[in-house]
Amino acid sequence: FAVLRPSNDLAKIAFSEVYDVLTRGRQEPHKKDDSASRFMEVGPEPEYHKDVHHFRLRMNKQRERQSRRPDQASVTEVEDETDIEVDDETEKYSRHLGMIWTGCYIFRLDHQPNLPYTGWIMGKGPTEVDPRTHHADLYLCTMEFAKKHVPNLRPRHGRFNFDTTNRAFFMASMVRSALPMLTVNGDSLTGRMYSLNQYHMTVWADTLQYKFEYTQYSSTKEFMQQRVAYMNKQYVNDFLPKPSPTVFEMPTPQRNTRTIGQWSMGKPLGKGAMGRVYLASNTKNEVVAVKMIEITAATAPFVEAEVANFQHLTELGKKYFDGGRIVRLKEKTNVFRGQSFNEIGLIMEPMTPNTVSDLVGGVYNGSNGMSIKAARIFRDALEGVKFLHDHGWIHCDLKPANIGVIGDRAVLLDVGQARYLQPGSMIKASPGSDGTPGYLSPEREQAAYDHSADVWAMGIVGYELTYGFHPFLFRESPWRPGRQYGSLRTAFHSKYRTAI
Fold first, then answer.
1. Known binder of ligand: residue 124?
2. pLDDT per residue over 67-92, tens digit each?
3. Can you tell me the distance from the alpha carbon of 350 to that of 359, in angstroms, rounded to the nearest whole number?
4. Which Pfam families match (predicted)?
5. Which residue in 158, 222, 272, 297 has a CA-CA distance of 20 to 30 Å to 193?
């Protein structure tokens, strides 16, 4: 599902030497380190690499200098191609220096690491196994190579594993030193777990450079299922308490991932009148929803109003504790293009993996009542609506798609169209300008309205959760003023007056 591929010359040479040692070890029964080769995918025969050839020539030249001047810098610091001129004769007779085994380290769920709870450990080796610890799974270089070229690489330098909260793949340092001896995309891993939330990332282990990359298989449903089975089995085998069921399964990052600030964007979650919403995460494995809104001269006032609503309701929820029932604005990011920005990203939390729409879709048509889970979520959503109303706000666009679901909790989403209502006042109707037609109360289109407009919308949501379909079979709102809608109103009253 993922690979770690040597990138710079030193890492390529180290990889080749490790494979040489491991394949020799397989032919000697007393050796115990050959199991590490199952984490390596290597070509059928050594290949010639001109860059490696010249790099080794430079290293040899530097060794000669060091023998004459012991205070000279390490050979790994000399990579300037101007240090040595390679003539045709030299290149011909030293060609063997460019022959190396090429390939990558592989991560497979059917190739379990030696310590599954710790994960895939990378470091230097092979080495004798200490009964108090364990050797690495991914040998980045031999012990002898490390002495000469990678002095800061440790036998247990770093590790890879899945996070128990959402099964995201992460990397962590196993070195206590404050020096940045392990980095990903330039960020030091000292004292932290680093979520590998982009399709490909650059890893440095001391002076060895690698390219970490997910495979196409990692995006398949089969991999997601095997990942669950692997993690459940891992805890049973290690005699550890099984983790709580995850509310959200982190999908594998996609190729050409877009990054907004610290957030790497993933799959789309929905689309609204003002923009698109995407799943996003950062390297701390924080998961959010990002709403991307394009700004034009015509939309700028509406965007400004939406941002102001989010900011106000976020502060309101924090101050008076909304129970986490109202989506919050975590940050705002302007996307610059040229001399100005014409797109804005609203970073919102929590990210809800499902909405009430998913519950409605699972209701069998003609059901005799609302399920217990649906009733809990519906009640929680009503609590969120009550919080808004108690503080003078109307949501103005309540519908199944705008009520997020996390476990048995509800979160009111898309509060950008919410309106504040002064006590005792009403909001003048603006037909066809906002809201969703199937959930608009009559007064939203015909006269002035107040908080009761949200009550009408929640009544329709409750009906859908009970029966699995919308109670009113009209493509357009029958309440909109105009002669052309008169026949729709007549038809509505004829069909539904008694029920209402």
1. no
2. 766 555 555 554 454 455 656 666 66
3. 19
4. Pkinase
5. 222
Size (the chain), residues: 500
For residue 14, the SS3 value is helix
Beta bridge partners of 405: 354, 410
Cβ pair 212, 4 in contact under 8 A: yes
Query: Which CATH fold would you assign to the domain 2-46+101-218?
Result: Tumour Suppressor Smad4 (2.60.200)
Domain boundaries, the chain: 2-46+101-218, 259-349, 354-496
Question: Considering the entire predicted model, what is its pTM?
Answer: 0.83
Q: What pLDDT score was predicted for residue 365?
A: 59
CATH class of the structural domain 354-496: mainly alpha
Q: For strand 193-195 and strand 169-173, is the pairing parallel, antiparallel, or unpaired?
A: antiparallel
User: What are residue 344's phi and psi, to 5 degrees?
Assistant: -130, 140
Q: Are strands 340-349 and 328-337 parallel, antiparallel or unpaired?
A: antiparallel
Contacts of 285 (CB under 8 A, 6+ apart): 163, 165, 166, 168, 170, 193, 195, 197, 250
Quick check: 104 and 3 in contact, CB under 8 A?
Answer: yes
Q: Which two tokens stand for residue 319?
A: 């101050």
Q: How far apart are CA 16 and CA 100, in angstroms?
A: 6
Predicted confidence (pLDDT) per residue in 429-457, tens digit: 888 778 888 899 999 988 899 999 999 99
Contacts of 188 by beta carbon, 8 Å cutoff, 6+ apart: 173, 180, 182
Q: Read off the tokens for 224.
A: 């997601």
DSSP state of 211: E
* Yes or no: domain 259-349 corresponds to CATH 3.30.200.20: yes
Selection from 43, 41, 37, 39 nearest residue 24 by Cα: 37
CA angle 268, 270, 276 (to 5 degrees): 75
What distance lies between CA 185 and its chain's CA centroid?
16
Q: Render pLDDT for 187-220 as a digit per residue (tens, 0 to 9).
A: 999 888 999 999 999 999 999 999 999 999 999 9
